[in-house]
Fold this sequence. Notes:
With 316 residues, the chain is an alpha/beta fold. The protein is built from ten helices and ten strands. The protein has helices spanning 29-41, 64-75, 102-116, 135-147, 161-174, 197-205, 245-261, 265-275, 289-299, 305-315; strands at 4-5, 12-13, 17-19, 46-48, 84-89, 121-126, 151-157, 181-183, 208-209, 283-284. The strands form two sheets. Strands 9-8-7-6-5-4-3-10 form an eight-stranded parallel beta sheet, covered by helices on one side. Strands 1-2 form a two-stranded antiparallel sheet. Helix 1 (29-41) runs parallel beside helix 9 and helix 5 (161-174) runs parallel beside helix 6 (197-205). The protein is globular. It starts with a strand and ends with a helix. InterPro entries: AKR (IPR020471), AKR_Detox_Biosynth (IPR050523), NAD(P)_OxRdtase_dom_sf (IPR036812), NADP_OxRdtase_dom (IPR023210).
Amino acid sequence: MQHRPLGRSGLSIAPLVLGTNVFGWTADEATSFRLLDAFVDAGLNALDTADIYSRWVPGHSGGESETIIGKWLAANPAKRDKVLIFTKVGMDHGPDRNGLSPRWIRQSVEESLKRLQVEQIDLHQSHTPDAATPDAETLGAYQELMRAGKIRAIGASNYSAEQLGAALAVAAELGLPRYETLQPLYNLYDRASYDGALRDLCMREDIGVIPFYGLAAGFLTGKYRSEADFGKSARGGKMANYLNPRGLRILAALDEVAAAKGAAPGEVALAWLIARPGVTAPIASATSLAQMDGLIRAVHLQLSAEEIAALDAASA
C-alpha cells in the first residue's frame, strides 16, 4: 500500500488512520482486538487515540482506549513495528489534569506510555489550544520528551490558522520542535473551519493533516436520513446538526457516485477526503468488522475528476 509522508516528521502513513475513540465505549475489548487485527492485516498502519478516550462514558476515567491498544500490542508484539501510535494531551481530566503545561504534558505522556505498554509514542498531539500556557513552554516540554526518546514527533488538534501559525513562529524563533501535523474537523459536510486560511497554511508549511470525524460522526454513511434514524447508534444525537437541506444534498450526491462505483456512501465520502489536496489521511472509526471492511475499501476507491467535482459542488 502506498504511504504518504506525514508532514516533515519523518513518519509515513497509509491514507487512512484508525480512530480508536470507540474502544472501550461502543466497541468492547474483544471487538477492538479484531478491528485492530483487520486494520493492520490490510496494510494500514496508523492508530489515533487520546488520554481522554473515553472519559465521557459513565464509570470511565479516560485512558480506556489506550489501555485496550496496549493490551493488543502486548498480545501481538510482532505488530508493534507495523503500527504508528498517535495520542493526545490537553482535554479536561479534572483538577490539575488538563491543558498544555509542561508538568501535565510530562505526566500525561508517562501515563500514556504505561497504558499503551510502549517505550515511545510516534506522534504526540496537543488536543486543544491552552491560552493559559505559552507555546514556548509547551514546545519546550515536547523538546525534552523528544530528546528523552519518549515521543518522535508532535502535532496539534483543533487549532485555528492563527493559533497554528503562532506556534510555528515560536518554534522557528526559539529553535524548538514544531507541530508537524494538524488534526482538524473536516469532511464533506464540515468544511468551513479548515478550507481557507488553515488549509492554505498547512499546504504552505508542509504540515501533515489527519482530519477527524471523516464520516461526520456517521452521517455520511447515509444511515441517518430522518429523525427516526437518530436512535441507530450512540452518536445519533449529533445527527440533528447535519439533517438539513445541505446535508440531504450531500447525501444525494454521495448516493449517485456510490451507485456508479458499486460502493457505499461512506466509502465515497472517505475517498473524497483521501483525494483532497491538503489532506494526508482522514481518521475514521469502526465498531464492527463489516464497517472495517468498508474503511479498507475506501482506501482503494478511485474517484474521477467529474465525481470529485460533483461532491465539491454539493458540499460547497
